[in-house]
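Sequence in, structure out. Go.
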Amino acid sequence: MNIGAASRRSALPAKTIRYYEEIGLLRPARAENGYRDYCDADIHRLKFLQRARGLGFSVEECRQLLSLYGDSHRASADVKALAATKLDQIEHKIAELRSLKKTLTHLVKTCHGDARPDCPILDELSGASA
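Output:
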């Protein structure tokens, strides 16, 4: 199938599919005319990548996951370790976002939001409140 059909079946833009090929995550066959020729296994691989990226895995982590997926002698502990590391990173990011929210909430509450020029938000951003 051509890239348009692969895009429809995988629900990924053709540009993303070309990118995955460019970085070596996908290697579709080539037809006699030189066009990419995607098969069902390629679509499965694209859907795998889409789900993994949707869970926050980086391209390099996806490369590792694909390698583990293709290795019938893999240990599930290796996959779990990769997923656990990603989970720890997500938890850290959530904590950072909560801290940002707390700070920004405080700044919004302390700003009068009226015609006066003084603004604790701008003071904080400029370092004047320190």
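Check: The longest helix spans residues 76-110. The mean pLDDT is 93.
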